[in-house]
Amino acid sequence: MNEGVVQIYYGEGRGKSTAAIGNAIQAVMEGKEAIIIQFLKGKCESKQEFYKRLEPEIKYFNFAKAEIPFDELDEEKKMEETMNLKNGFNYGKKVIATGACDLIVLDEILGLVDQKVISLNDIKEMLASRPDDMTIICTGRVLDEEIRELADEIYNIAPEK
Question: Would residue 82 count as lying in a domain?
Answer without folding.
Answer: yes
